[in-house]
Amino acid sequence: MPVEELITGRSAAEIEADPRHCSLVGMVGDGELVVVSLTKAFRDALATSETSSLRDVAISWAGTYDLGPGRRDAVPGLRVIVASPGPRGSCWTYVTAGCWSTAEKHGHGLEFALTAPAGDESFVDLLAKIAYYHAGHHLDLEHSMPIGEPWIPGSSCDHLLASLSYLHGPDLEHCPLPNGRARILWTLPVTAAEVAFRREHGHEALEQLFDEHEIDPTDPKRASVV
Hints:
By secondary structure, the chain is of the alpha+beta class. It is 29% helix and 27% strand.
């Protein structure tokens, strides 16, 4: 499928109601997936965007997912953007779109990104958990959240730590919106021992350990640094 056409989880009615960025091409499987054609103006805007990381994510957008009625109620309109590997890296990136409105203050709110070694719907579900947790607990930079299970089967990391997006650089951190600005925080999979260390010694001390051990944040088998 050319870059000009994408598969999206939005409904045909949603596409036709807002034709600014794309137009309806067709539907796949009872309308569960909708094929859209990007408008030339939108393609040109993406191609000339100064925010290269955000441009890569937008062009690689794979679709959106039904995250369930309970989560929809907590985070209305929540979607997950999926970016496949590209020239800047070999990993998959998942980004929430909709968390901003649940806890925004004066037009400023948060979205969350997760980098993973593979494309799998389980990571979309993990982003949904983050969004749901944020709606009730208002996550912020250097905050952590329990997952309740390994982020990948067999991994010792069962918590997430909200951090700056070191893997993607500052281009992905700030996203201007019509009514404000979203800050995108990276959610780093960490162990319970690392969370306990951060609480006792501080976030900077934990990051120093990460640097000393030269961790691969997307490696599901990485050992705890404490």
